[in-house]
Amino acid sequence: MNIASLCSGNVVTIREFEELSAAAQLMREKHVGYLVVVTPDVGGGGSRPIGVLTDRDIVVTVVAKDTDARTLRVGDVMTRNPVVVSESDSVEQALQRMRSIGVRRLPVVGSNGALVGVLSLDEIIDALAAALQNVGSSIKAERRIETALRP
């Protein structure tokens, strides 16, 4: 199982010079708590992740400190130089990176470094649950076949 087969390609992105309030509105509109901050990839035509912004970043950095969000830009609050995973990486590699930095999501990049998706723990759990379901179904099928062949 590699990352390309699991990650979501529906990434909500924003630029670092956008107003923070616009980022919060985008999160609300798209029903997400995670934005990938991108810059255009001049050579490849796509975009490269340069940061991430979470709803928690906004709460902890802005709301909890009673800062006026209208005075801030995404670049003032985002986490710069995000840890990313390659679409060819294994799930185990992604989980190790997530655990080492304590996050639930990672931007996924292609071989050229361009953003191709986001991987979340939810997607990993869904895939692992499906794999376990297949294991359970195999065991049941084995028993059923054995019973039919040797009554």
Distance from N terminus to C terminus (CA atoms, Å) equals 38 Å
* Proportion in β-strands: 15-25%
Order of helices and strands: EHEEHHEEHEEH
Q: Can you list the strand order of the major beta sheet?
A: 1-2-3-4
Mean pLDDT: 89
Main beta-sheet annotation: 4 strands, mixed
The helicity comes to: 40-55%
Q: How many distinct beta strands?
A: 7
* Rounded radius of gyration (Å): 20 Å
Structural class: alpha/beta
What sort of overall outline do the alpha carbons produce when their principal axes are compared? elongated
Low-confidence stretches: none
Number of helices: 5
Keywords, please?
5 helices; 151 residues; alpha/beta; four-stranded mixed beta sheet; three-stranded mixed beta sheet
Explain what this protein looks like in three dimensions.
The chain is α/β, with parallel strands linked by helices and 151 residues long. It has 5 helices and 7 strands, in the order βαββααββαββα. The chain has a 4-stranded mixed sheet. It has a 3-stranded mixed sheet with strand order 5-6-7. It is elongated, with a radius of gyration of 20 Å.
Quick take:
By secondary structure, the chain is α/β, with parallel strands linked by helices. The protein is 42% helix and 21% strand.
Q: Secondary-structure map with pairings?
A:
Elements: E1 13-14, H1 20-30, E2 34-40, E3 47-54, H2 55-63, H3 74-77, E4 79-80, E5 85-86, H4 91-101, E6 105-109, E7 115-120, H5 121-149
Parallel strand pairs: 1-2, 5-6
Antiparallel strand pairs: 2-3, 3-4, 6-7
